[in-house]
## 1
Amino acid sequence: MQTDRHPGRSAVRRSRTILAAGLLAGLLALSGCGAGDSASDAGSGDSKKALSADERGAADAAAGKTAQDPQEAGGSSAEKKPDALPAGTHVIRTATLSVEVKSVPKAAAAARSVAESSGGLVAREETERVDDTHEMSHIVLRVPQGEYDAVLRDLAGAGKLLSRTSSAKDVTDQVVDVASRIATQRASVARVRKLMDRAEKLTDVVALEGELSSRQASLESLLAQQESLKDRTTLATITLDLSEPETVAKDGDDDPGFLDALGGGWHAFVTMLRWLAMAVGAAAPFLATAAVLLLLWRLLQGRLPGRRAPRAPERSESSSTPPAS
């Protein structure tokens, strides 16, 4: 049996072998982890790509659906409000309609009903009778902006449309300007009030009160303008003129009959009597004056012959007496 002559070298070789085996195992472990990480990254990347593909597919499908069926994607809202304005836009709308209807009272009642059912009101109404058979009505309606077009269609379809005018005025800049001026004026009023609280002299208080009154009046004027703009931009104004067609004579009434002739004759007779009475009334003062003058003249004529009668015999006696011889 042989023994190892160099026991130290054997130990070194074993340690080197163990160290190399450990390094090899570590490298294998590191390579396995890297492969696992790469696989996991590849798997996650594939899942992300698949998810993105699914999302793109869903988006494409939604876009295709919107293109194929626009009514489902906002079409109904567009139908309800075809003239919907962008947010922050303020417009004043006015319209004037002239419609010929069979019955003005019925059409006016229908117009009032349409305005009230849409959330509006009747601002003014004037109805007059032109003659015994014709009526005319002038109605001013205030309706919400969203119901403006629908109310116009209903009113125009009530009869024969004779004329129609409409206008829209954008007052967004004016609304914004008034709101800004109101904010500035309010801050100014607040500053003056703070100065009044700090003022100690009576003269300063009086001056600040005058300034505060002036600025408060300006603020109230701006608030009134803002309220007017709000009212005109919230409610549209529609002016409706209703009229009835002229009455057409019937075929049977073209030729006058006995009753028509009798009525015409009676009307002429009454008219003649009325004119005669007016003529007599107008001539009555002159006739009375003439009668008084005629009476005076007759009285004078009766008195003058009575005075001349006694003188005639005296003249005859003197003329008949013969001359003395």
## 2
Amino acid sequence: MNNLLENADLRVFVTVARQGSFAGAAQALGMSAAYVSKRIGVLEAALGVRLFQRTTRRVVITEDGAQAFERAQAILDSLDDLIEESAERRRAPSGQLRVCSSFGFGRQVVAPAIARLARAYPALQIRFEVFDRLVDPVAEGFDLDVRIGDEIAPQLIARRLMVNHRILCAAPAYLAQHGTPRTLQDLAGHQCLVIKERDHPFGVWRLRAKGGEVTVKVSGALSTNHGEVALRWALDGAGIVLRSRWHAQPLLASGQLVQILPEYAQEANVWAVYPQRLGNSAKVRVCVEFLERELAANMAADRAPDAGA
């Protein structure tokens, strides 16, 4: 039973339960699938119950496994709290920290900041992942999600890292050929570069003006799931794009893009989102405060990172 007390095996078990497969857990943990399977077998033998039903295609948690998952998560949370309390006394956050973000914003902005965070706090072990979909930090085991957009589930804690909004832009060459839209209704006759990323509705732009929020359906010959691609197309004169102002501002200043319909914008603040159970986590607090300073420094230096959302 000594192995039951080892948090490493409990973490393997919890990860398999979340991923729904040995292969997925192995990838998340940086282990081999054979090793993950072996540790689950050892844990099942120690507990005297079957934790998963295995088939050739997937792994399904059993009723005993579901009960064990709740207890295992509680044990790991308590252990992490103990480590963090000790670290807090040393004023040096330590332990594992799982962070996620979207593809473009995560790659261009969050990843460099995370690297600097790791250098500042070498006792932290940070795993950073990017996705093209909305992540549930609780269900997927992330400590922190750095996301763009104000629609956040009420069961999560959210701290705004930066005020941001998106604006409508096009290249001068496109406007010279197709004309400049004067109303939202005019967009129906234009090539709009539609982006599908994470939780953003495809082909629908929700914009805010003095009169409140309006929704406009847009379309065009080109669409993508990546903001960098859409921006490249816009710069090449292919159509109208909706991009973050702090990303587009240098391109507007250089004349490569022109803002259209400036009375309309889309709220797209940057948030740090994390589970309620981590509300007092020292490592999460340190990470959030660090990212807040990093984004403020970026803005002060008038840089142009790709928001990618």
## 3
Amino acid sequence: MEKQPPAWSRLLDLSDKALAVLLLAPAGLLLSLIIVYPVLRLVYTSFFSLSLTSGLPAEFVGLENYQLMIEDPVFWETTWNTVLITLITVPGALVVGMALALLANLPFRRQWPVRLSLLIPWALPLSFAGLIFAWFFHSEYGVVNDVLARFGIEGVIWFNSPSLAFAAICLTIIWKTSSFMALIILAGLQTIPRSLYEAADVDGAGRVRQFFEITLPLLKPAIVVALIFRTITALQTFDIPFMMTGGGPGTSTATLAMYIHQNTVSFLDLGYGSALAVVMFALSMCVTVIYLRIIRTKE
């Protein structure tokens, strides 16, 4: 009778596809535990009326939380504020980050101070950045009003005006996130061969033409990656407006993440808060799918 080989030796004869599935199975299981299960649990909770302050047990209400959301003016206001912050700060951070990356990529004798300066805003905690800029825009002893006064311009009360408060928040977010964009774009710049620019110099192409015909096309993958991460985090904006204005005046600067926090942490309404979180998760996934489709069409 022919002797069967041991089980461990048969693993060496697996096909490439079977071996890939076997090796990826632990990572897939871990992702299921820390991502898939919480998301499914969130969706499940959104179908219940679950308020910890009422003392009543959870009751299945179907789509009632989502119906309440449609009729909730604060939901629409905070969602619009979130979308507007995304539309303003993501392109703003991209433009500023591109300029910083190009500056950091110049052949300085000592490049580390320039590149270190890019890390400081990115490494700063979001809540700390919000506190710093809340002081900058303070109406009585803020730096911004002090600078305006030195130029003979009367200071303004930034956080009493919805439009001015919103502008201050957007400027803060752009300052905080542009360094992140710059680091990713700088990494993309490092992969562009210098020989392309040398050949362009021989052909008589100027710096502007080199940027649009060499730098920008080759930077598109890095830019798309930066936009994906920045857009998703912009849709989840919480710390900076929370620390600067607390959502005020009224709810004019409140974001969807702040409204979720208010319902779940302050009001302990887990059912409605979960429904709001599902909507924010869906927005993030839609943006990711759109970016991935853009990448596929350009390949």
